[in-house]
Amino acid sequence: MELLDEFDISILKELEKDGRMAFSSIATNLKISNTMVHQRINRMIEQGVIGGIKPIIQEKKIGYDWASFTGLSLNKDSDSERIIEALKEIPEITECYYVTGSFTLYIKIIAKNHEHMRRILYEKIDGIPGIDKTDSIVELGCAFKRNISL
User: What one-character-per-residue DSSP string does 24-82 give?
Assistant: First the structure.
């Protein structure tokens, strides 16, 4: 059984155009019932297909002009869960991924300026027991970001 059918995909496409679109407008556009839209969206949220409905904050518009992608080498990969919990306590870290290669984890850090970035790296991240080293790449701007095509 497939997770999404044609109605689910159509509803998601409507939400991608405008995540604030009223369910009744989606129903009208797709010529289906409002109840069906509600049920389908609720089911996709419960299944984790839709991770939540929240604003996309443009960091640079609120004074966060620096970003980095930072690889973390750990003393022991088995410490990763404990280290991830510590990273979650740092609000400037907005993403964290398990990766292969030279690093165990890759994180995205958002900072106001280079001094703020330095403090995050040296005073917060380097202080987490079990992190061996960090290697950062400064982001110069996002060329594009999108959802997977449906």
Answer: HHHHHHHTS-HHHHHHHHHHHHHTTSS--------GGGGT--EEEEEEEEES-GGGHHH
Q: In the sheet where 66-74 sits, what is the strand order?
A: 93-98, 105-111, 66-74, 131-138
Give the mean pLDDT of 16-27. 92
- Contact predicate 66/111, CB 8 Å: yes
**Tokens standing for residue 71:** 């690889």
Residue pair 108/67 in contact by the 8 Å Cβ criterion: yes
pTM of the model: 0.82
Identity (one letter) of the amino acid at 105? Answer: L
Cβ–Cβ under 8 Å, residues 91 and 111: no
> Among candidates 51, 124, 123, which has minimal Cα distance to 89?
124
Token code pair at residue 51: 């991770």
